[in-house]
Specification:
Blueprint: H1 9-20, H2 25-43, H3 49-63, H4 76-86, H5 91-109, E1 121-125, H6 132-143, E2 147-151, H7 159-162, H8 175-183, E3 189-193, H9 203-214, E4 237-242, H10 250-253, E5 257-260, H11 266-284, E6 292-294, H12 299-303, H13 313-331, E7 338-340
Parallel strand pairs: 1-4, 1-5, 2-3, 3-4, 6-7
Helix pairs in contact: 1-2, 1-3, 2-3, 4-5, 4-6, 11-13
Amino acid sequence: MAVAPAQFEDITLLENKLAGAALPPELAQKTQAMLARLVRLATQQGYSQEYDSVARYLDWIISLPWNKRSTDTASLENAKKILDANHHGLDNVKERILEYIAVANLKNQKHQNPQGPKAPTLLFLGLVGTGKTTMAYSIAQALGRQFGRIPMGGMGDAIQLRGRAKTYTDAEPGQIMKVLRRVQTKNPVILLDEIDRVTDEAKADIMSVLVELLDPEQNSQFLDHFIDHPFDLSEIFFIATANNTTGIATAVLDRLEIIEMPSYSDEQKIIIGRNYLLPRIIAASGLKPGNLVLEDDVWPQIVRPLGFDAGMRTLERTLNNICRKVAKLKVESKLESLTLTAQNLKDYLPKW
C-alpha cells in the first residue's frame, strides 16, 4: 500500500508495525481492512474522531504479545536460592513453586508441550504484612518471568478488567490487556491484589470475570471488549491475594489453590528483621553496615513495640525510623556509628 510518509506518517508507522507483528490470521486480515479504511479517512479534510478511534485500536492490536513469551528458568537450585534469599520460612509456598518448575522441566524434556504446562492459579490468604505481595514478586523472579500487578481493592466496575467496547467514546482495554502490553510477554506472573476488597455494588460482575480469568478451561479464549478478539491467557501465572475469603465468590475460590500465609512469631520476626530487613533498610538510608549495630537483647522490644502484630509492616516502619534518625545524626556530624542497646533504644524508637 503506497502511503506518502510526509502526509500520513502515523499510518506508515502502523503499517511498518503491522508488517512485523505476528497476529492471528483472521485478526491480521481484519487489521489490513482497517488500515485501508484509515487511509481513506486520512484523505478527508478536517478532524475525524473515527480516524483517531481506528488508529488507536490498530496500535493496541499490534502492540499486544500474541505469540511472545519468556523462557522459564529451568534450574530448581536457582529458583530455590532466589526464594530463600527473599523470604524466611514459608516452606509450603516455596515447595509448590518448585513442584511447578519441576513439572515444566519434565514436560519440556519429553516435548509434550513446548510451551510448558498450564500455569497454576494461587490464592495467598493471610493478614496484612504477612508477605503475600512480596512472595508474588519473588515467584516471578524465580521463574524468570515478567511481573504485573492489578490492584483489586476498591474496584467498582468489571469493565476495568474486561475493557469497554470500541463503540463507546471512552473505550479502552481492560487491566489484563494493559498489563500484557506493558510486560510484552503472554506468560507473565500477574498479581490480582486484594480480590476480597472489590466494592459490593460490582462484586457479582467482577467475580464472574474472575471465574473466566482463572479457569484454565475458559481463559484460553478470553475476550476483552475493546480488543474484540480472543486472547489466550492460559500461560499466565495468576496469583491472587486476600485477607480472608468472606468477600470472594465460591465459584472463584473453586478455581484457586489456597495457600495460607501464617502470622509471624516473634522469633521469626527477629530473624527476618536481622537478616533481611535491616541490611536492606540500612543501604536504602545511605548508611554503611558498620554505622548501625543492634545488640541481640533489643530485638524483642523492636518487634513488639505496641503488642502483637501478625505481619512485618510495623517492624519495617520501626527499623526505617531508627535508620533515618541515625542518618540525620551522621549528616549533622553528631555520630559516626551507633550501637543500639537496651539503655538507648527508647531514644530511637518512633514516638506513638
